[in-house]
Structure formats: C-alpha cells, structure tokens
Amino acid sequence: MNLKNSNLMTIQTQLNSTFAGKILRLFSDFLIHYLWEKRWFFIALFVGGVLMLAPAPNGLSPEGMIVLAMSIMATIMFITEPIPLPAVALLIILGQIFLLGHDSSLVAKTIWNDSVLFILGSLMLAVAVVKQNLDKRIAWLIVRITGTKTSRICFGISLVSGLLASFVGEHTVAAMMLPVGITLVTLTSDDPKKVRNLAAVLLFSIAYGASVAGIGTPSGGARNAIMIGYWKEFFYDPANPETYKFIVDYARWMLFAYPMFLIQAPFVTLILLYTFRPEYRDLSRAVVKLRQTVESQGGMTRSDWVAIFLFFIVLLGWIFASDIFGMGTIAILGAVLFLVAGLVKWEDINSGVNWGVVLLYGAAISLGIEMKETGAAEWVAMSFLSLLEPFGAADGFGLWAAVSVLTTAVTNMMSNGAAVAVLGPIVLKMATVAGESPITIGFITAISSAFAYLTVVGTPACTIVYASGYLKTTDFLVVGWKMAVASTIIMLLAARLYWPILGL
Question: What phi-psi label fits residue 61: left (phi over 0), alpha (psi between -120 and 50 degrees) or beta?
Fold first, then answer.
C-alpha cells in the first residue's frame, strides 16, 4: 500500500512539473479562488433558480413569482456586492427581457423615467457646483457656525440638510450637499483609507439628515403627496362634514410630522458617531485649509453669482414647476444652463458623474414597477400581515408596528413613492376593517417609507452619496438597521402619545 501511494505521488510530481500540469494547476487554483470570491453571486443565482422552478403560491401569478425571485437575487447582490453593482443592473434588464418576455424597448422606457433623469441631472449639477468651488464656501459657512469639532460639524450638516430637504425634497439637498461633505473629507486627508470612517459619518449625515426631514412636509417627498391623495379619494365626501378630516393640508401635515424630524435629528449624529467612530475628532486641519482656500478665492466673482443664480432658478423650478415638467427635466435643464454659460465643461461632467450609479437606480425603479404590475408586492404585503395576525398585529399598536415593519422592508427594495403607492390601498383598507383611524395608519405608512436606510437604492439620497465612491453597500446595513429601529420607536411613540393630542 505504501509503495502504491509512493508511486502515485511520484506520478503527480512528474505531472506537476510538466507544462500541461502547471497549466492545470493554475486553472484549478484560479477556479477555486474565483468560485470563492464570487460565491454570493452563485448563491443568489441558486436561490433565484429554486424560486422560479417552484410552483407559484396561491394568489401569486407565475410572472409575479419570477419578479419576486429577481428581486431577492438583486437584493442579495446589492448587499454582498459579488459583482459590480452596474452589472447587477444589467442583469435586471436582461431578466425582464428573457425571463418575463418583455420587449427591450418597453424595458428601456421603464428605466429612463423622470426619477432617473433627476438623479442624472442632480449629479451633473453637483459637478458644476464643485467646479465653481461653491461647495467650499457652503462648508465654510457651516463650520463658522458649528466650530471645528467633528461631532458638531456632522450635526450641523445633518440639520442643514434636513431643514432644506423638508421643503425642497431630499433628492435636491443630497445633490447640493454632497460636494460639501467631500470637501471636508479631501481637505482632511488625500488618502481615502485614512478617512474611511470620517467620510462615512459626513456623507451619511447628508443622506440620513435629508431622509428623516423628508417626512416633515408634503413637499418633502412624493410618498407624502400620494398618501394625501389616497385619503381624499377613499374617504372624503363633500356631502358629509365628518369626512372633512381626511383633507390634510400642508400645515396640518407639518403639525403631525415636523416635530418627529426635530427629535430624530440629534439621533442621526449619535448613531453615526457610535457606529463608525471617525478617525479625527477635530477637523481643525481641514478647517484651516478650508479657510485658506476660501480666502485665496477672494470675493465672489461674476461666475459665482451666475452659478448661484442658475442653481436658485433650478430650485424654484423644482418647487413650483416640477408638477408640470418633472423634476428630472428641470435638473437636466439646469445642467444644460451651466454648460451653455460656460461654468462647467462636458469633460468635467463626463469624468465626475458615476454613470454606473445612474444605471443602477434606473434598473431598480424598473424592477419596482414590475413588482407592482405583477402583483408581487401586494402578495408579499398580504402574506406578511397574515403571518403577523396570530401575534396580535390585527389591530391597535400591533397593527401599527406591523405596518411600519412591512413598509420599511418594502421601501428598501423600491422607491419610497412606489412603496406607498402599492401598500397605501392595502393598509388603509386594513385600518377600516380593524376599526383603526385611516389617518393614523396612513401617516405610519408614509413616514415609514422614509426609513430606506439599509440599501443603496432605497432612496435617491442614499444613491447620491454612494456615488461619491467613499461608501460600501455593507455600510448601509451596518448603520441602517440602527437608524430604522430608532426612527420606528420615535414614530410609534408619537402615534401613541403625541397624535392623540392633535385629535387622532
């Protein structure tokens, strides 16, 4: 036996010494390394394949089963990132064509919608703002108010982002404030590895500050306007004065929701500082460089004032004309105005915009549309609530919590507006059956749809800060669940203690 083993080892050694043997060994090592490195890609494919081959459950169409499988596969890849995220976007597009049998032209139409144009235009405008060095002036203004402590600067950025986002929308503010955060990071260190946690804290302060503020007013996000429309359409009767309470105007919405933003604002900073623990507790070095940079620029030039004027025009367009032309159209128009005015070159935009992120967001929206059209989102919602019914989630506080958890889960897989559009009719009907206030359930749904903290594609604000290149997809999970828990607790406490004072 020993002689036989010795002969086998001799033959193996001789084989390895040959050219063919070396090639075979290199190939096997590469294959093992590749399979391990891409393991989550193949796991995602396996999970999706099993779901697609399995019979569709009652209430879910075969097309809905395919879309659900695609969503699960995409979510796994979004989280683990075994392949570049733009490649995941391309797989989503190919899946709609080959698995669902859609025409490629129709798929393309769902990708290039106004929301995607807005992301593209916003990123272009951010590049234009950086080109004018206005971001440094904004950063200097914030620092002069907050001081040099990292914690205070983060809170200042979060609060400023929130105050602006509550009135002009989180998308706009994230695009405007992104250069501010990047400026403070780059002035601290040129090596991204040395400011990894600092960048995470500053950039998430922008995204999460804008997200928590988006609940404060009807103009803070499309989700709010959708719910207001549902209340009026489902419950308002001009002939019945008792139904007038379902007409929720701007001021009444703020009365219910704005205090929640003010309470959440400091928690954003506390959670971020606890999670990432920035490398620098004081940004005096960056502040000194920032002051020197701003002073070296001198006073405001004609180009600076033109840039401010054009951006102000874009903001006014978003506020007053987005219903007519769309926010994306206005954003693209703003970028064109900057190009025509000679304030930025196309080469700058071409190199500064993360085109892969634009594609990623477009594909995610397209998949969300498929979730809605095939009934997969509705089936998931109803199944989730059926599972929770035995645990006391059929009414009262249990129903509130269940609706919040469900909405949070759905909104992290599709846009906030789509989540409310899909879940709104379902949860409002459930409120009627359970004897709960549709306004309470509606507020919980709309507000919870803002808790899209866990994924890159959960909200455009997250997508925009991710486009900076400083963040990983896993960062959103690490801090996102803490944000979601804190936001949910604050909202449920408001529903229990504060909203009854207002008449609910």
Answer: beta
Rg of the Cα trace of the chain?
26
Could you tell me the CA-to-CA distances from 212 to 168, 259, 411 in Å, in that order?
13, 11, 14
* Average pLDDT along the chain: 82
Could you give the C-alpha distances from 423 to 89, 261, 394, 419, in angstroms and in order? 25, 23, 16, 6
Residue 244 exposed, middle or buried by CB count within 10 Å (0-12, 13-18, 19+):
exposed
Beta bridge partners of 149: 282
d(CA 389, CA 31): 48
First to last CA, the chain: 85
Q: Give the type of residue at 27.
A: F
Structure tokens at 101: 């049998």
**Consecutive H or E run containing 156:** helix 150-168
Q: Which two tokens stand for residue 250?
A: 């701007």
Taking residues 77-84, what's their average pLDDT? 81
Q: Sort 303 into a burial class: Cβ within 10 Å, 0-12 / 13-18 / 19+.
A: middle
pLDDT of residue 288: 80
**476 contact partners, CB below 8 Å, separation of at least 6:** 453, 454, 455, 456, 458, 462, 466
Q: Which of 136, 266, 148 is nearest to 209 (CA)?
A: 266
Structure tokens, 212: 């928590």
Residue 89 CA to residue 259 CA, distance in Å, equals 38
For residue 7, pLDDT over 60 is answered with no
Extents of the domains making up the chain = 2-111, 113-504
Helices (H), 277-354: 284-297, 302-320, 322-325, 327-340, 346-352
- What are the C-alpha distances in Å from 412 to residues 202, 215, 388? 22, 16, 20
Q: Give the phi and the psi of residue 282 in degrees, each rounded to 5.
A: -135, 130
Q: Considering only CA atoms, which of 352, 359, 346 is closest in space to residue 469?
A: 352
User: How many DSSP H helices and E strands does the chain contain?
Assistant: 25, 0
CA distance 445 to 436: 14
> Using an 8 Å Cβ cutoff, are 459 and 416 in contact?
yes
**pTM exceeds 0.85 for this model:** no
CB 110 within 8 A of CB 373: no
**CB of 456 closer than 8 Å to CB of 360:** yes
What's the CA angle centered on 72, arms 69 and 74, to 5 degrees?
105
The tokens for 395 are 């009414």
Nearest one of 39, 469, 431 to 246, comparing CA atoms: 431
